[in-house]
Amino acid sequence: xxxxxxxxxxxxxxxxxxxxxxxxxxxxxxxxxxxxxxxxxxxxxxxxxxxxxxxxxxxxxxxxxxxxxxxxxxxxxxxxxxxxxxxxxxxxxxxxxxxxxxxxxxxxxxxxxxxxxxxxxxxxxxxxxxxxxxxxxxxxxxxxxxxxxxxxxxxxxxxxxxxxxxxxxxxxxxxxxxxxxxxxxxxxxxxxxxxxxxxxxxxxxxxxxxxxxxxxxxxxxxxxxxxxxxxxxxxxxxxxxxxxxxxxxxxxxxxxxxxxxxx
Amino acid sequence: xxxxxxxxxxxxxxxxxxxxxxxxxxxxxxxxxxxxxxxxxxxxxxxxxxxxxxxxxxxxxxxxxxxxxxxxxxxxxxxxxxxxxxxxxxxxxxxxxxxxxxxxxxxxxxxxxxxxxxxxxxxxxxxxxxxxxxxxxxxxxxxxxxxxxxxxxxxxxxxxxxxxxxxxxxxxxxxxxxxxxxxxxxxxxxxxxxxxxxxxxxxxxxxxxxxxxxxxxxxxxxx
Lengths: 263, 223
Fold this sequence. Notes:
The structure holds two protein chains of two kinds.
Chain A: H1 16-22, E1 39-41, E2 44-49, E3 52-57, E4 61-63, E5 66-69, E6 75-79, E7 82-89, H2 90-111, H3 117-130, H4 132-136, E8 141-149, E9 154-160, E10 166-169, E11 172-175, H5 179-189, H6 196-213, E12 229-234, E13 237-240, H7 243-260
Antiparallel strand pairs in A: 1-4, 1-7, 2-3, 2-11, 3-12, 4-5, 6-7, 7-8, 8-9, 9-10, 12-13
Helix pairs in contact in A: 5-6, 6-7
Chain B: H1 9-25, E1 30-35, E2 38-44, E3 53-57, E4 60-66, H2 68-88, H3 96-113, E5 120-126, E6 135-139, E7 145-148, E8 151-154, H4 158-168, H5 175-187, E9 196-202, E10 210-213, H6 215-222
Antiparallel strand pairs in B: 1-2, 1-8, 2-9, 3-4, 4-5, 5-6, 6-7, 9-10
Helix pairs in contact in B: 4-5
């Protein structure tokens, strides 16, 4: 490797994807027609609460009708004050997350200051639009981006479609194959300024209901000790809710349902 | 037909070196030292938003003295190199030694082939899990790379500052002592302390170890 020195008018600046292109490390995606039997990730949710936002996602990946992986991660820190969660084709989605994380870090280091939350959301929209040729072949990636906006001092949620369309959600959102069920559950329980405890509780409920109705969404797996990912993003930054805590909430939820005879 | 003047290669190189050294000695020096909890980098800087110290990668920091636009260009290239390398291979594969070598090669090429040499000196620091794994590489304007043990002083008046700092230095000292010694050495006996730019690479951090200290934090530590 050599030191990447560019003439002033040809430098990619703080754009990491542009840098990879300059160095010939981002080959164009060939068109090969519809792909099937690729891994898919499923239900992800995000909601605002008093201190910021909560992001959560189940852990199952499917290939057609079989379970491809029981413990994949779908919720990631994008940088200190934001997170990204993914639904859709797992391969390109994970690659997009990695590139997105690097892009934010690269910008912050070169520029000496981080992008605004809005800037980060727009950056992700551009990456999704860049993935459109892949989406046309069935490799769609539909993430949720959420974070704590340090300037406005509030949590904010952004959702996307495959064309790179970017939409800001007011309070909550859920997407993926079980997204509809999760969204309905959260819609019924959500109130303004929820505390952390009840917000985590509601996210867990949403994912539970999604796993009940959707074959591709994984529920709690006490046999293997695998539980959905829940994370909070506040002024303190991105923080994962510990597995024992999540496990306990699922246990309590199931016990409550059993005792009440509620389906 | 006019004859070109003959300049011996020795004289030609010496002139370039003198030019570079003169440029570098106009700037303020930078001190880096290992301490128990990581590596401290400190320098006097009258432009609080034009940084001389910067993060490069998880465990690697950059310090530059001399002409700002030149070392900042090198700083950016270093970050670009590190981020691409970490993307292509893995984050663990990004190390200070190879980055220092690349800087050395580039500066050497500029020094030998271009009319004007870079008027910069660079420090590449990498924090290890234990103090013995800390690395400090000092790269000169002509591309010469030297590895320094435990501490390093670069920039104008470096010899005198190094002497003052060495008299205070102790291995595995605490951050406060290291910072006091660095500030004392940078300013000397006959001058007041100016605006300081201070950053640390914190030992044992899982990802990004670089942390910039603001003026109040520095003032508190200096007491």
